Amino acid sequence: MSQANAWAHGQTAGPSRIVLGVTGGIAAYKSAIIARLLMKAGHDVRIVPTESALQMVGSSTFAALTGHPIHTSVFDDPMGVEHVRIGDEADLLIIAPASANTIAKLAWGMADNLLTATALVATCPILVVPAMHTQMWNNPATQANVATLRERGMVVLEPATGRLTGADSGVGRLPEPEHITQAALGLLSPQDLAGQRFVISAGGTREPIDPVRFLGNRSTGRFGIALALAAAHRGASVDLVACNVDAALLPHHPTITIHEAGSARELQAHMVRLADGAQVVIMTAAVADFRPATATESKLKKDGTVPEFDLVENPDILHGLASDRDHGAYVVGFAAETGDEHGSVLDYGRAKAKKKGADLLVVNRVGETSGFGDVETAITILDRFGEIRAEAGGSKSQMAGVVINTIISSRTGD
């Protein structure tokens, strides 16, 4: 069955059906990014634009992006009563950007297009993301309409502050697509981790050779960040220890606290301190096995000789956390593995699971097109005895959900 016909038959291509409403405004182009991020997280997205929105972004773009037909009027499919069907089957309705005009229509219960009619029918959570000029946002009429929507249970995000159209700047800018996606995923997620604290490391450690060079690895931190967001969306508070992670990748979530670390010893200090009293500790960061015994104070010069380094072994942070259980946390480790002529990825993963002693070990298959970076990944989750608890493949956001579910089921014995 095609994705375009999935809604009509009560099926979805992903875990949740999301309706993304798009209204007229210069920020309408960002709705395509929001749709892509939601689809990357595994959800089925249907875009319902207003006629004004189609003046900004063409219907062919939305259709090609989601695989669903684009309609703007309740008369496009009168026999199918489309606004009733779409609104009734939706698990979440997002309106981003939401113009002052559409917000007013929602507050007054108007239904003069497919989007507003769908909103009247929908019984699912509704996320409204305003975007407009500063004066329009601050106008008492808009503020009263927003207050009305919130009183009725809709979630209305505050607009961001920044560059608007032309030379104007101020409050009214659409929040970044990543922030909107995080809010949306939080509304879809069960709050089964409320009251629990997770400590998660992400990225890769760097061991200085001189002020310029270091020993490191290719880890970007994306998997650790996906895990932090997955736990936070389900109600947990998260301490995220970010090792040399690009600032643009770091999450902006009210229950995620970020701690920065550079070297393996800095990471160890953070993890040991934060593990105390946590319910779950996840060591996702890739730790350099060795470090130079000393780092030079000035940059090494190329003078025709090859410098020699004395290397010393870094602490095994995961093994230490798994061995010392005074902190009381459930410990999960990660192992990036490749197979070779001596054994498979699973062989090496099982050996490491038994050696490390963590409650779970996520074996992450890495290579040129998988594992590190913004690519899909394949994982096998082992217990401390090397037995398989789960296997899956897909985006890092999807795999983060698999890991969190496996942690929950393993802790509760399900």
UniProtKB/TrEMBL annotation:
<dbReference type="InterPro" id="IPR007085">
    <property type="entry name" value="DNA/pantothenate-metab_flavo_C"/>
</dbReference>
<feature type="domain" description="DNA/pantothenate metabolism flavoprotein C-terminal">
    <location>
        <begin position="193"/>
        <end position="408"/>
    </location>
</feature>
<dbReference type="InterPro" id="IPR005252">
    <property type="entry name" value="CoaBC"/>
</dbReference>
<feature type="binding site">
    <location>
        <position position="299"/>
    </location>
    <ligand>
        <name>CTP</name>
    </ligand>
</feature>
<feature type="binding site">
    <location>
        <position position="356"/>
    </location>
    <ligand>
        <name>CTP</name>
    </ligand>
</feature>
<keyword id="KW-0436">Ligase</keyword>
<feature type="region of interest" description="Phosphopantothenoylcysteine decarboxylase">
    <location>
        <begin position="1"/>
        <end position="197"/>
    </location>
</feature>
<dbReference type="InterPro" id="IPR035929">
    <property type="entry name" value="CoaB-like_sf"/>
</dbReference>
<dbReference type="Pfam" id="PF02441">
    <property type="entry name" value="Flavoprotein"/>
</dbReference>
<keyword id="KW-0479">Metal-binding</keyword>
<comment type="function">
    <text>Catalyzes two steps in the biosynthesis of coenzyme A. In the first step cysteine is conjugated to 4'-phosphopantothenate to form 4-phosphopantothenoylcysteine, in the latter compound is decarboxylated to form 4'-phosphopantotheine.</text>
</comment>
<feature type="binding site">
    <location>
        <position position="289"/>
    </location>
    <ligand>
        <name>CTP</name>
    </ligand>
</feature>
<keyword id="KW-0210">Decarboxylase</keyword>
<comment type="function">
    <text>Catalyzes two sequential steps in the biosynthesis of coenzyme A. In the first step cysteine is conjugated to 4'-phosphopantothenate to form 4-phosphopantothenoylcysteine. In the second step the latter compound is decarboxylated to form 4'-phosphopantotheine.</text>
</comment>
<dbReference type="Pfam" id="PF04127">
    <property type="entry name" value="DFP"/>
</dbReference>
<comment type="similarity">
    <text>In the N-terminal section; belongs to the HFCD (homo-oligomeric flavin containing Cys decarboxylase) superfamily.</text>
</comment>
<keyword id="KW-0511">Multifunctional enzyme</keyword>
<comment type="pathway">
    <text>Cofactor biosynthesis; coenzyme A biosynthesis; CoA from (R)-pantothenate: step 2/5.</text>
</comment>
<dbReference type="GO" id="GO:0004632">
    <property type="term" value="F:phosphopantothenate--cysteine ligase activity"/>
</dbReference>
<feature type="region of interest" description="Phosphopantothenate--cysteine ligase">
    <location>
        <begin position="198"/>
        <end position="414"/>
    </location>
</feature>
<feature type="binding site">
    <location>
        <position position="352"/>
    </location>
    <ligand>
        <name>CTP</name>
    </ligand>
</feature>
<keyword id="KW-0288">FMN</keyword>
<feature type="binding site">
    <location>
        <begin position="315"/>
        <end position="318"/>
    </location>
    <ligand>
        <name>CTP</name>
    </ligand>
</feature>
<keyword id="KW-0285">Flavoprotein</keyword>
<dbReference type="InterPro" id="IPR036551">
    <property type="entry name" value="Flavin_trans-like"/>
</dbReference>
<feature type="domain" description="Flavoprotein">
    <location>
        <begin position="17"/>
        <end position="185"/>
    </location>
</feature>
<feature type="binding site">
    <location>
        <position position="334"/>
    </location>
    <ligand>
        <name>CTP</name>
    </ligand>
</feature>
<protein>
    <recommendedName>
        <fullName>Coenzyme A biosynthesis bifunctional protein CoaBC</fullName>
        <ecNumber>4.1.1.36</ecNumber>
        <ecNumber>6.3.2.5</ecNumber>
    </recommendedName>
</protein>
<keyword id="KW-0456">Lyase</keyword>
<dbReference type="InterPro" id="IPR003382">
    <property type="entry name" value="Flavoprotein"/>
</dbReference>
<comment type="pathway">
    <text>Cofactor biosynthesis; coenzyme A biosynthesis; CoA from (R)-pantothenate: step 3/5.</text>
</comment>
<keyword id="KW-0460">Magnesium</keyword>
<dbReference type="GO" id="GO:0004633">
    <property type="term" value="F:phosphopantothenoylcysteine decarboxylase activity"/>
</dbReference>
<comment type="similarity">
    <text>In the C-terminal section; belongs to the PPC synthetase family.</text>
</comment>
